[in-house]
Design goal:
The complex is a heterodimer of chains A (about 375) and B (about 270). With about 375 residues, chain A is an alpha/beta fold. Chain A is built from 17 helices and 13 strands. Chain A has 2 domains: about 120 residues, Rossmann fold (3-Layer(aba) Sandwich); about 240 residues, P-loop containing nucleotide triphosphate hydrolases (Rossmann fold, 3-Layer(aba) Sandwich), CATH 3.40.50. In chain A, the strands form 2 sheets. An 8-stranded mixed sheet of chain A has the order 8-9-7-10-6-11-12-13, sandwiched between helices. A 5-stranded parallel sheet of chain A has the order 2-1-3-4-5, with helices on both faces. With about 270 residues, chain B is α/β, with parallel strands linked by helices. Chain B contains 12 helices and 8 strands. In chain B, strand 6, helix 7 and strand 7 form a beta-alpha-beta unit. In chain B, helix 1 packs across helix 10 and helix 5 packs parallel to helix 6. Chain B is globular. In chain B, about 50% of the residues are buried. Classes of the chains: A alpha/beta (about 375), B alpha/beta (about 270). Chains A and B meet through helix 13 and helix 16 of A and helix 4 and helix 7 of B.
Chain lengths: ~375, ~270
C-alpha cells in the first residue's frame, strides 16, 4: 500500500529525520510536514493523507487527536514518542489513535506498527482481564485458554495471554507450544522495550492469539516483580485488544496489585470437596472495599453438577454474590489439554465450547 | 509407644493442587493416633487450609495467636495452649490451625514454624499439610521433615509437568532423595495416562499407590470423620494403613529397601 504521510513534529531536527525515512521508502509518499498541530488539522485536507505521524511528546498534540479523527475519519493516526511513556500511550488510545510507537528509525517499523495495530482491532483501549483462583485447582488455565480462543473468534480482535502463574504456569501446554522467550526476559528488558519490540516475546499460537510464557523454573519466579509485570501488561495492551493474565493461586501483594490494575477480575473455583464456596466467600471480602467491586469482580465455578440455572442461583445465594457463569464437568476439556489439541476444540462437543463463547460475549467491550 | 524411638516430622507436599494433600494428612494423623502415637497436625496451607473444615472443628486459637503470644510474653509461652484437639471415640490428635484472616497469614514467619516444631517435639509425629507452592514456609517445613510425602496424581498433562518441575526442584535443592517418597493418589481412577509413563517422566517409581475412593472420601468429608476411623471398610483406608505401616517400619523394612527408588540404588552403588 502506498501511504500518503503527514508529519506533525515540532522539533525541527526530529522532523527532518522522519522526513528522510519517509522519502527513502517506496511505501511512503511525503505529503506535508507541520510543526503546529492546529495548522495540521485544518490544512492537511488538501493533501488527502491516509497516514498521520503525530509527535505526542508534546501533550498539546495529544489533545488534538479527536480533531484529527473528526476531520479524517478513516486515516491511520500513529503517535510517536521519543521514549516509551505508558501514560501518554493510554491517553492516545483512549482518544482513538491507531497506536503509539517510539520515534522510528526505519520505514519498516512504521509498516510493522501499522500491521500490528491493524491486527489488534478497533482503536479502543485494551481490556485487561485477570484470572485468579484463590486456592488452586479451579480449571483456571482451562478457562483462560478457552476464553482466549472464544474472545479472539467472537471479537475478531487480537488477544494476548500473559502467563503470570510464575511457579507453575501451564498456558503453553494447553496450546502445545514451546515458546522461546518467557516473562522473565520480558520483565528484565521492560525498561528498554516498546510495544513493537515487546511483540516478539509473545508467541503466536493461532491467528489472533499470542502467549507470553511463565518462567522455565519455579525459582525464577522471584525475578518477576509486580511493578515490572504491570508495565508489560500496559505495553501489551498496545498490541492486543484483550490482555488476559493467568495469576498464581494464593493471596499476596503481587496478585492483588495485578487485580487492582485489571479492568475485570475473573475469580474461578471448582466444585469438589464442598469448601470451595467458603474459600471464595472469604476471597471476595478482599475486593469488597473497591469502588467498582460489583462490576469488576466476576465469579465462575466449574464442574457444577447439575450445570443449570437453579444450581447457579443456589451457589449465588450460598456465596452471597452473583455467580457470573458456571461450567460443567471438566472431563472433556481435560482430555483436550492432555492431547495438546485444544486448538482443535471444535471437535469437542459444541455444547462445551458454547459455554466459553457465551462468557466471551459478555467480556467483549 | 509402638516402638518409635525418635519423633518424626512428615510433610505432605505437592506442586499440584487438589491432589488430596489434606485428605491424606488428616487420615495419616488419625491412623498414627489410632496406633497409639501422639500426633500433631500443622495446617500450613495458611490461607485456605481445609484441615479444620474437613474435621468440622472450630479452633479457639490459631498459629497466629501463638506467634503473637510468643512475641508479647515469651516467658509465659506454652505451645500446647494453641493446639486444638480432634477426638473421635478413643482416638485423638492435636491440630495447629491456620490463621483466621488473610492479614494474619502475611505475618506468619517461617522461623516460627521451626520454633513451634521444636517446642512440640515431644509428639511422636508432627505432620505438615502444605499449600501448593515453593515458599519460605514450605521450604522450612521440608527442611524440618524426616519424610517428605510428595503427592502425585497422574491424570492431567499440565499437572504431570508441574509434578516433574516440583520433584526436580526438590532434587536440585539437595533434598535427600531417600527422604522424598513419591506417593500416587487416585492411582486407579483413570488409565488414560499410565502410571509407568508418569514414573518415566518423574524418573522414579512411586513408593506407594493410593486408590481412588471417591464416594467414601466424599462421605468422610461430609461427616467430618477421617476415613480410617469410620466403621465401614474402604479401599483407601486399607491402602493408607499400609503406607503408615511402611512409614513406621512395621514389617515393611524389606519392602522399603526394594522400593526406595532409582536414585537411591545409584547412591548405594557409589555409597
Amino acid at each position: 500500500m502506498d501511504y500518503k504521510v503527514v508529519i506533525i513534529e515540532g522539533n525541527a531536527k526530529q522532523s527532518e529525520k522522519i522526513e528522510n525515512i519517509i522519502r527513502d521508502s517506496d511505501d511512503f509518499q511525503l505529503a506535508a510536514t507541520f510543526g503546529n498541530v492546529a495548522a495540521a488539522v485544518i490544512q492537511s485536507k488538501i493533501f488527502k493523507p491516509n497516514l498521520f505521524l503525530l509527535d505526542v511528546d508534546n501533550t498539546l498534540n495529544i489533545s488534538a487527536i479527536p480533531e484529527f479523527l473528526k476531520n479524517y475519519p478513516n486515516t491511520i493516526l500513529l503517535c510517536m514518542m521519543e521514549r516509551w511513556n505508558p501514560d501518554s500511550a493510554e491517553r492516545c488510545n483512549e482518544l482513538g489513535a491507531t497506536g503509539c510507537i517510539i520515534n522510528p528509525v526505519h520505514a519498516e517499523e512504521i509498516i510493522e506498527a501499522i500491521n500490528i495495530f491493524n491486527k489488534r482491532g478497533s482503536n479502543k483501549p485494551a481490556e485487561v482481564i485477570a484470572f485468579f483462583s484463590p486456592k488452586g485447582r479451579s480449571a483456571k488455565t482451562t478457562l483462560v485458554a478457552n476464553l482466549a480462543l472464544s474472545l479472539a473468534r467472537e471479537s475478531g480482535e487480537a488477544v494476548g495471554i500473559i502467563d503470570a502463574d510464575l511457579q507453575f504456569g501451564d498456558v503453553p501446554i494447553f496450546f502445545d507450544a514451546e515458546p522461546e522467550s518467557t516473562i522473565v526476559e520480558a520483565v528484565r528488558d521492560v525498561k528498554i522495550l516498546s510495544p513493537l519490540t515487546l511483540s516478539p516475546y509473545f508467541m503466536q499460537v493461532v491467528d489472533d492469539l499470542y502467549i507470553l510464557s511463565s518462567p522455565r523454573q519455579p525459582e525464577l519466579a522471584d525475578l518477576v516483580e509486580r511493578e515490572n509485570l504491570i508495565e508489560i501488561v500496559r505495553m501489551a495492551g498496545n498490541l492486543y485488544r484483550y490482555v488476559l493474565i493467568d495469576l498464581p493461586s494464593g493471596i499476596d501483594s503481587f496478585v492483588m496489585g495485578v487485580c487492582e490494575f485489571a479492568d475485570t477480575i475473573i475469580l474461578s473455583g471448582m466444585i469438589g470437596t464442598g469448601f470451595e464456596v467458603k474459600h471464595m466467600r472469604r476471597s471476595l471480602e478482599l475486593f469488597q472495599g473497591w469502588s467498582d467491586y460489583g462490576k469488576k469482580v466476576n465469579v465462575i465455578f466449574s464442574r457444577v453438577d447439575p450445570c443449570n440455572e437453579i444450581e447457579q442461583n443456589r451457589l449465588s445465594n450460598e456465596l452471597n454474590y452473583p455467580v457470573y457463569a458456571i461450567l460443567p464437568n471438566e472431563y472433556l476439556l481435560m482430555s483436550a489439554a492432555n492431547s495438546g489439541r485444544l486448538l482443535e476444540r471444535n471437535e469437542l462437543s459444541s455444547s462445551i465450547t458454547k459455554y466459553f463463547d457465551r462468557i466471551a460475549e459478555g467480556l467483549i467491550k | 509407644m509402638a516402638g518409635i524411638e525418635n519423633n518424626a516430622v512428615i510433610t505432605i507436599f505437592s506442586t499440584v493442587s487438589g491432589v488430596g494433600k489434606t485428605l491424606i494428612a488428616v487420615n495419616m494423623a488419625a491412623e498414627l493416633a489410632k496406633l497409639g502415637h501422639s500426633v500433631c497436625l500443622f495446617d500450613l496451607d495458611l490461607q485456605f487450609g481445609d484441615v479444620c473444615n474437613y474435621l468440622k472443628i472450630s479452633p479457639q486459637f490459631t498459629i497466629s495467636d501463638a506467634q503473637f503470644s510468643l512475641k508479647n510474653s515469651p516467658k509465659d509461652f506454652q505451645a500446647e495452649t494453641f493446639l486444638t484437639t480432634y477426638k473421635r471415640g478413643n482416638v485423638s490428635f492435636s491440630i495447629l490451625a491456620p490463621p483466621k484472616t488473610f492479614t494474619e497469614t502475611y505475618k506468619i514467619q517461617a522461623s516460627f514454624i521451626e520454633y513451634m516444631t521444636s517446642k512440640l517435639n515431644y509428639f511422636d509425629f508432627i505432620i505438615f499439610d502444605t499449600a501448593k507452592k515453593f515458599s519460605e514456609i514450605n521450604f522450612t517445613a521440608l527442611n524440618l521433615s524426616t519424610i517428605i510425602t510428595f503427592l502425585c496424581v497422574g491424570d492431567f498433562v499440565p499437572a504431570i509437568k508441574n509434578l516433574k518441575i516440583g520433584y526436580d526442584t526438590l532434587v536440585k535443592f539437595n533434598y535427600d532423595e531417600n527422604k522424598i517418597r513419591l506417593i500416587q493418589n487416585r492411582s486407579d481412577s483413570q488409565k488414560l495416562i499410565l502410571t509407568e509413563d508418569v514414573e518415566g517422566v518423574l524418573g522414579r517409581q512411586f513408593y506407594h499407590n493410593l486408590p481412588n475412593d471417591y464416594m467414601s472420601a466424599k462421605k468422610s468429608i461430609e461427616n467430618g470423620c477421617p476415613l480410617v476411623l469410620s466403621d465401614s471398610l474402604n479401599k483407601f483406608s486399607e491402602s493408607l494403613k499400609i503406607l503408615v505401616a511402611k512409614y513406621t517400619n512395621q514389617n515393611f523394612e524389606e519392602k522399603i529397601e526394594e522400593e526406595s527408588g532409582f536414585f537411591a540404588s545409584i547412591k548405594k552403588l557409589f555409597g
